[in-house]
Structures are given as C-alpha cells and as structure tokens.
Amino acid sequence: MNKKNFLIKTTCLVTLALTAGCKPRVAPQEQRIPPVRVFEAQPDSISSYITLTGSIEAQNDAVVYSKISEKLISLHVKPGDRVTAGQVLGTQYHQSALQGKSVAAAALKSAQIQLQTTSNDYNRMKNLYDKKAISRQQYDQSKSQYDLAQATFEQAQASLEQATVQVENAILRAPFDGKVASINFEINQMVNQGQPVLQIINAQAVKAKLNVPSGDINKITIGKKVTAVFPALPDTLFTGEVIRMNEAIDPLNRSLGMEVRLSNSGNLLRSGMFGEFRVETAKHTETIVVSEMTVMTSMQITTDAMGIQTEKPEYYIFLVKDGKAHRRSITQGIVSGGLIELTSGVSFGDSIIISGQNTVKDGDTLNVINRTER
To answer: Over 90: is that where the pLDDT of 24 sits?
Structure first.
C-alpha cells in the first residue's frame, strides 16, 4: 500500500468517527415517558339487568261476541278504526225483539193505570173501614184488588226490562276505547250466539308475559324499570315497568311468571311482536363508573397450609398523581353494558388512566396528553 492510499483511508475513517460522534443523543428518560389519557372520577350511576325474551300483546284486548242467533244487518266500523267505549259497532236483526218491547211497554202502561185506579179505591175503602163505615169483607176485597194490580205492574216492569235487554243484545258495542283489530263477519251473514264478531284492542300500552329463572326471582319486584328492543324496530327503545308477578314457580320450567307493561304512545308496536326485555335488578348512584377497558387484571396465586394453590384475580387501575403512575387495587361492584363500578381503591376527583394504561408501570413518569370522559 502506498503512502497516498493510506492517508486517504485514514482520513475517511476519522471523518466517519467524527460524524457518528456528532449525532444528538436521545435522553433515555424521554424515551420512557408514555402518553396517557385520564378521566377525573366523578359521581355517576350504574344499573344491573337481566335479559328475557317474549312476545307482546295489547294491554286491553277483547272480543265482541254475539249474544243472540240472528243475521248481521249493519256494520259501522272497519279494521283500523278508532272507537270509544259504548260506541255502536254493528247491529243484528232484532225486529221481533222491538215488537216484544213495544208490547211490554204497552202492558206496563196499562198496568200502571190499573194500579193507580185500584190504589185510589183502596185508600178510599181503607178510610171508610177505619171509620167503621164498611164491612171487613169489603175492605179485604179492595185490598186484594190493589195487591193484584201492584203485582201486575211489577210483572209488566220486569217484562219490559227483559224485552229491552233482548233489543240491546242485538247491538254490538265497544267495551273500551281502542281500535278495531279484526271483523269476522260480513253484513247479511248469520251469526250464532257466542260467535266472535269483532276484536277490539287498546295498544296505547302493551304487555308481555315473561318467565324469570328461579335464580333471579329475588332480584325483581313490581315496579322495576324495563327496557325493550324489537328486531322489527331495531333503532327504537321502549320503556315500561313490571306490573305483576306470579305467586308460585312453574314446576315444569322452574321459572316465575311475570308481566311487564310498555308504553306504545307512537303506536309502533303490534300484538305478537317478539322482543328482548331488560329488567333492572339493581341501581347504584353516587358511585364511580369506568369503561371495562380501564380495569386491568392479574392472577394472584396463594398457597394454603396443605400446599394447595389457588388462583384469584386481582383487579387494578392506574392513577396519575404528581405526574407519575400509581397502581391501585380496586373492588368491582356492578358490571353492566361495558361499564364497571369501582367500589374501593379510588375516590372522587382521582385522575384515572383510561388510555395507555397497558404500557404503564407503577411509578412511571407520564405524559398526560388530555383529560376526557370515561
């Protein structure tokens, strides 16, 4: 190797060494400061639920039956029409009943006149008898005629009432405010006594009969809040409450029958729709609630006197105090809908790490990049 080449190579090596030595050094501490997001613990509320499934029906659902065997001569409504309690829906043939009512009314009027006449005669004869002006026989005869007239009048009254009922039985009326759900006959069709003619429902409120597993019975009481969703209306949440619970468990499925009522003010729900019902079993207020992603878990192994090892989960979070991470063991309360109640290990006002906690160690210096809601 000549002298010139040696000098060139030596110069390059020195240059490379100087260049490398001129690169800025990154402080080790800066590399280890993890960015985190925190949430300031504030009073909140959380509820636990059980989920049940079932179908709904109208709160009021009644069938209007025929009370006589006669032809249907008129209908004043159609399916979907709103009706009020007592409104005439239709009429069956009842001409003979009307005639019978007219005859009964005439008989009552005649009996009333006869009763008035005999009443006057009886009062006059009684007054004479009290004055010893007539015999006992004459008085008794007058009283007998009055008693007969009184009985005839009462019988005429009963006959008219019965005739009026016969006429009324031919008139089909709405049992309550609601809507016509269905009509089973057409005009001029023969309808026998006891056959269903119309169905009336009131769907302003709907009800569902659900079965509660025996293990959850003690968690539910009448008045508990209920929310429901239906596949046919996936974007709408309906609310209601428990209105009835059976007294005994069904021995076949070991569940307790329960009835809930839902508001249907928008008339979106229809009888027979299948849905999922969430019944509130507990509600805690003035408590700390975080996302389940905030809580970390580690397994703690303990060994008893017999040498038997047991695994037990430890739940913990990280707090930020004075710019550093502090690991805190916590106790979980209600766990529901992706949220967890913290019942110990944290206080109102504490800064809880809710993002970045997976890379944090106890005592780490932290870079809090923002404060947010849970």
So the answer is: no
